[in-house]
Amino acid sequence: MSTALRYNLAWNYIWENYKRYKQQCILAELTEEDTKEGRHFNEFIREVRRLAESKQDIPQVKSNYVLTEDNHIVASGSFNS
Fold first, then answer.
1. Are 75 and 33 in contact (CB under 8 A)?
2. Which residues contact 2 (CB under 8 A, 6 or more apart)?
3. 68 contacts: CB under 8 Å, gap ≥ 6
4. pTM higher than 0.85, yes or no?
5. Domain extent at residue 44
6. Minimal CA–CA distance to 26: which of 9, 47, 13, 18?
7. Angle between the N-to-C axes of helices 39-52 and 20-31, in degrees from 0 to 180, rounded to the nearest 10
8. Contact at 8 Å (CB) between 19 and 30?
9. How many domains does one find in the chain?
10. For 36-66, how does the pLDDT look when each residue is reduced to its tens digit (9 = 90+)?
11. Which of 11, 16, 34, 66 has the fewest CB atoms below 10 angstroms from its CB?
């Protein structure tokens, strides 16, 4: 599995498992004009990096991905037909 795909899966997995209030904190930090990032965002990125770079399997959580017969994860949709 490519590194880019592992980061994408890790990002989605961690984001979807965060509580709503934490997601809102991150979004608020990213929309503030004075800062590019904040405490919650930095924590989120650390978790994504740790999971993506580990040897651990990353569960698929986004409905826009499908597992093909040859065990590849691809985006679903007509463009993959």
1. no
2. none
3. 74
4. no
5. 3-80
6. 18
7. 110
8. no
9. 1
10. 678 899 999 999 999 999 999 988 786 667 7
11. 34
